[in-house]
Amino acid sequence: MKSNLDISIKEPLIGIRNLMKHLRPEWKPEKIQMTFYTKGKVNTLIKCSEEKDSSDAVVIRIYKPEMSQFVDREAEILANQLIAQKNYSPTLLGIFNNGFCYDFINGQTVDIKLAKTKAVWKSIACGMATIHGIHKPTSSPKKSNLFKVLHNLIDLLPENLPDSVKNEQYKAYFPTKESLRKEIRELQFHLDQIKSSIVYCHGDPRLENILWNKKITFIDFEFTDYNYQAYDIAAHFNSYAGFTDDPDFSQCPDQTFQLKWLQEYIKQWNKNQNQDSKIPIDNVDMLYIQVRKFSLATHMMLGISGILGSALSTVDLFVYGMKRIEQYFQHKQQVFDLKSQ
C-alpha cells in the first residue's frame, strides 16, 4: 500500500490514525496506542496497536529529513522486500511520503551478552550469509561505492563546527580533509590487494539492528546495497563496542570467536551458492584476515559520518566519530601487517 501522507515526527498521532484507516480499518482511531521504541539517532520508530501490549501491532518508521542526502529510500524499500523474502526481515505493509511501516516483530534487541550466546551468533552468521547471497533484480554489474562514498563524505566536512567546544577538539585532533583523502587512497590500494567479494550487504548490521525471538530478524536497511563482504562482517563485529559516546572496543569478538563465527558463515554461504561460488572451509583464515583489514574501513566510515552528524543535523555522534577515527590510526599498521597463514 502506498499513501500520499506525511506523518509529523513531533505530532504523529493524526497521521498514524489516517494511515491505520487503510492498514487496520477494524481499529478504532481513538483507541490507537503509540509506543516510542527510541527517539533514534537516524529515524523515529513507533509501535502502534489498539492495546498497548498487543502483538497485533504495526511499526511506523519516520525518516529524519536531514538524512535524505545520505540515503536512497527506494533502495531501502527494495532491500526490505528482498530480505523479507528470505524470512530475515519484517513484512513491509505500506509506504508513505516520509517513511514506511511493517509488521511488528515481538523480539528482543540483541545486546552484547545475547550476541555471544551460541544460538544467537550462529543465527546471525547464517542470516548474514543468506543476505549476502541475494541478487538485486537488475542487470547492472555488482560494484561497491565504498571509497567513492568516503571521498564524498570528506567533501561535506565543514571547516568549523557550530559548537565551540567541539570545534576546538575538531580542529586539534580530527585529520584534515587532505590527510583523510591520502589515508583513503592508501587504504583502498591496500584493500584492493585482498580481493574481498562484492555481495549484497546489510550495510549497518550492528546489534541494535538485530532482533531475537528464537530466530534472527534484521531491521534498518538504509545502507543496504552491494559492498565488500568483509566490510559488512567487520561492521557487525565492531558494533559490539556499542553505538554510544563511550564505545568499549574490548567487547569486540576476539580471534577465537571470529573464527568460529566465520566457519558457520561459510557453511551457510556454501549451502546457498552454486559450486563455482563456494568458499573452501579451510579458507576461514583468509576470510578472517579480510575482515580484520576491512575493519579499518568501518572505522573510517563511522568516524567521518559521526562528525558530519554533528555538523549537518541533529544526529550528534561527535564523540563516537572521534573515537572511531582514533581506532583507525591506533590499529592501522598492525592490521596492514597481517598476512594469511
Automatic annotation (TrEMBL):
Q: Which SUPFAM superfamilies does the record associate with it?
A: Protein kinase-like (PK-like) (SSF56112)
* Protein name, per record: ethanolamine kinase
Concerning Pfam families, the annotation shows:
Choline_kinase
Which residue ranges run through the membrane? 300-322
Q: Which GO terms describe its molecular function?
A: ethanolamine kinase activity
Annotated pathway: Phospholipid metabolism; phosphatidylethanolamine biosynthesis; phosphatidylethanolamine from ethanolamine: step 1/3
InterPro entries hit by this protein? Kinase-like_dom_sf (IPR011009)
One GO biological process term: phosphatidylethanolamine biosynthetic process
Q: Identify the keywords attached in UniProt to this record, alphabetized.
A: Lipid biosynthesis, Lipid metabolism, Membrane, Phospholipid biosynthesis, Phospholipid metabolism, Transmembrane, Transmembrane helix
Could you say which EC number(s) this protein's record lists? 2.7.1.82
Looking at its record, which EC class is this enzyme?
transferase
As for family, the record states: Belongs to the choline/ethanolamine kinase family.
Identify the GO cellular component terms for this protein: cytoplasm
- The residues forming a coiled coil are none
